[in-house]
Design a protein that fits this description.
Largest interface: A-B, 54 and 54 residues
Largest sheet of chain A: 6 strands, parallel
Structural class of chain A: alpha/beta
Order of helices and strands of chain A: HHHHEHEHEHEEHEHEHEHEHEHEE
Distance between the termini of chain A: 63 Å
Number of strands of chain A: 12
Strand content of chain A: 15-25%
Oligomer: homodimer
Low-confidence stretches of chain A: none
Shape of chain A: elongated
DNA sequence: GAGGCGTGAGAGAGCGCTCTCTGCGACAGG
DNA sequence: CCTGTCGCAGAGAGCGCTCTCTCACGCCTC
């Protein structure tokens, strides 16, 4: 198992290392006969270019990072897999590696180091909160970065998101179309843009809705629905800020003898796997996650290729998936 | 944004590059005063070692791959996240990168190239099937590799798995303990060791159980349960080969007017997120995925550190999580 | 005081690759 | 016939780092 170097390929082919390199990278002009000689030498020796050596001179790592928070509610997030798969689809054919970085508190800065020491060419950042210093550092250092989701505060950074407010509106319109008269919403956390925007869009359409604040979890859906039924027993339509909330809500509604969608229509958000395992299956707002992920990858590659690329934001339209629950 | 090299650190500290390198890597003996001078120089210049240059000479990439099949049923697999997070936990504190490789058909060999050209130090392989040439190639080349799950055919390769048969037995014992008289199982695919072993362990405990073959999906759970109810309407206990099967089974049981666990007790396998969003919540067999993932990482690191490490297999014990469904 | 030895720093040789620069031969234009 | 140009291959200078090898210096022993 000896290592084959370009030097050796050149020797076998009877050319110089420079010419062998030209053939490997397909640039420059090389005589057809020599090109073939080199190609034969490559396959006969089983040559593979040493990435470290190449990277040392090209100053490209041919690797990008995907930075995720290692939070429990993130684990098993069905979106995660779609993001990974979407980014992979763009990046892999180019021979670029995707480095997964699940960061606990404190280890997040690692991404910045990896970028600065040339180990990574750029990063996709998921779910940054206002306290996260990483985006700021990256911007300051002029390093390629794309955010998944609109930043919490306005900042000059490229991001890709879905129009959360439009999604909320979609849900509201659905409940109205179903003829619901007493409509409520259980929201996501109001300190997150995602949580806020969904309600905002929803309230634009159903201004007199009852609002109960929660977070995106199933537990929160359970607690908030108990509260909702106490405050407003005649509710006949619920917009849940997430599918998980919706599953919790439906469990509580059943426990209280309400049928879904008979007595109460329920619309979720995310079109996660929970939407399908739920009884009844969830009507929900879908985000085109895979498309968004591909767009993130493309935006990042653009920045890497040309660091002077202006900051952009791409916003995708959500869609309503009608199933049994509402 | 100029790059700081070790050369520059050495110049600022007034020492040679060699000494600066010793301080950075913490090896060799360096005078205390010089050590401090170098450390000051490092922080004042903001020095970060160039990984490519280091990797070129150390012949270590400080990166490992996690190879997953890019199949739809794999997307959103709740285990995936636990595997990633477990591996990350071991590997990250050592500064080792985790490269996610979702491979479509044909692109799987990429992992072998990445390993051979020094881009990756080792790989964790998930869900290889008998037709997969990669494990064989890796073994032949003597490259560090760990399999997640027992290989389909016996081969000299290190793997980490859970005792699937013991898990099946756990489920069988539970149904017996509940007093079920007419017990059935809906299996996973019988061409996968995972699918086979679970039934085998189950049948050791409940030899007269009715067996319906399916795969691990919810759809399969739905179809198989319809079949089961037709063949055996008095069934009062079901062991589902996966949680997804179980959710499908429960949906069908409800549709047919059976209560769970009143009329029919249901036990799943995996303790996935579906087990919690299900109504009623699923009694299920848990695999200690995060622990297993950590073990995989450790095994892999051992092989990387010492390629002569003998092939090992580590088998974890499953446990029963009792909830509402059975 | 000479020789042996241990400690710690510097010199410098690569690691394998890319890429510029040089050089050489062929051909066109003056 | 000489010069300019162009096409294409080779020489070689790094990229930034690690690590061996050499060497200087101070201490101990005889």
């Amino acid at each position: 198992m000896k290592r084959v170097t370009l030097e050796e390929v050149a020797r076998v082919a009877g050319v110089s290392r420079a010419t062998a390199s030209r053939v490997v990278n397909g640039l420059g002009t090389v005589d057809e006969a020599l090109r073939h000689a080199v190609q034969r030498a490559i396959s006969s020796t089983g040559y593979l270019p040493n990435i470290a050596a190449r990277s040392l001179v090209t100053r490209r790592a041919d690797a990008i990072g995907l930075v995720l928070p290692d939070e429990h509610r993130m684990l098993g997030d069905p979106h995660l897999a779609s993001v990974v798969s979407g980014v992979t689809r763009v990046v892999r054919p180019l021979g670029i590696h995707l480095v997964l970085m699940m960061t606990g508190p404190g280890t997040r800065e690692q991404a910045v180091s990896d970028l600065r020491c040339g180990r990574l060419d750029g990063v996709v950042l998921v779910h940054t909160d206002p306290a996260d210093p990483v985006p700021g550092q990256l911007i300051a250092a002029g390093l390629p970065v794309v955010l998944a989701g609109r930043p919490w505060q306005p900042m000059p950074i490229t991001y890709v998101d879905v129009d959360q407010a439009a999604g909320g509106a979609l849900a509201g319109e659905r409940l109205l179309a179903l003829g619901c008269r007493r409509i409520a919403t259980i929201t996501g956390p109001q300190d997150m843009p995602t949580g806020r925007d969904r309600v905002r869009g929803f309230l634009d359409v159903v201004p007199d809705a009852v609002v109960v604040h929660g977070d995106f979890t199933r537990e929160s859906g359970i607690a908030s629905t108990e509260e909702l039924l106490a405050r407003c027993p005649d509710v006949d339509g619920v917009f849940a800020g997430s599918d998980l909330i919706a599953t919790g809500a439906i469990a509580v509604l059943h426990r209280h003898g309400r049928t879904v969608p008979g007595d109460v229509a329920v619309v979720g958000f995310d079109d996660s796997s929970a939407a399908l395992t739920c009884e009844p299956e969830l009507t929900t707002v879908r985000q085109p996650i895979a498309d968004m992920a591909q767009e993130m990858a493309r935006q990042l590659l653009r920045q890497i290729a040309n660091p002077a690329t202006p900051v952009t934001s791409v916003v995708f339209a959500p869609s309503l998936v009608v199933r049994a629950s509402g």
